[in-house]
Amino acid sequence: MVSFSAPRHILHFILSPPKEGAFEPWSVQSGNPCNSGKCSLLPNASQNGHFLEYQNWLTATYIFLKSIDTEHDKEVDTYRRGLTTQVLEELDRLESLKEWEWERQATAISFPVRKYLHQSLKHWLARMLCREDIEEWLQRRRWNDGSVRVPMRDIFDGIALQSLLGPEAGTAFLDAPPHELRLIFSLSADGFNPYQMKEAKHTVTSTAIYMICLNLPEHLRYLPENLYLVGVVP
To answer: pTM for the complete prediction?
Structure first.
């Protein structure tokens, strides 16, 4: 699914945010037309074009998915429900962006130019588990009965993870039941110049936040396709 980031230009509302008070979100499930209500955007303003076009497309997709008859096909119904959930989450995210802009215009308090957005861990993990052989690697048992392996060749051989407690009292996190998949991630953040300028006195920096799934073997865990990009701080 495509995505829409924070708008580069100020969104233009039909009503004035400083005069109208609190933001009132619109929901496709309310049955009201797209871009309706107190906090609707000016439809003819060029700055609103991309936002409204994407919102209209998501709304039409939602209506189409709801119209599909999947009563006699459970597999198709499962996919339809999953896509419907993603569309609703994206529409809610658009309303959050619009609310942020409404509040920015309604108050004298300065706001950052861009709002930090992150990639959903649930969606990223679902895509990774769909890849061939990945789930088999992740399901490999890492529990050493709580003991340290010498010589240590991996982070799972140390006492830190072997002694990590799980959700059940008195049990280790790695000592998981056969039907559970328990993953451990490490966190990494690094800044970079998005303009690739190396000259001195250029201080523009963006920061990428990554998580690495340590359950993967070393020859797989640091491959770009296996790194979870949490988000980028503008």
So the answer is: 0.52
Q: How far apart are CA 105 and CA 125, in angstroms?
A: 37
Question: Looking up tokens 């988000």, which residue turns up?
Answer: 231
The DSSP bridge pattern shows strands 227-233 and 185-192 to be unpaired
- Got the DSSP string for 27-77? -GGG-PPTT-STTPBPTT-GGGHHHHHHHHHHHHHHHHHHH---TT-HHHH
Can you spell out the DSSP letters for 99-120? HHHHHHHHSSS---SS---B--
Chain centroid to CA 65:
22
* CA 67 – CA 69 distance, rounded (Å): 6
- In the DSSP assignment, the letter for residue 202 is -
Is 70 exceeded by the pLDDT of residue 182? yes
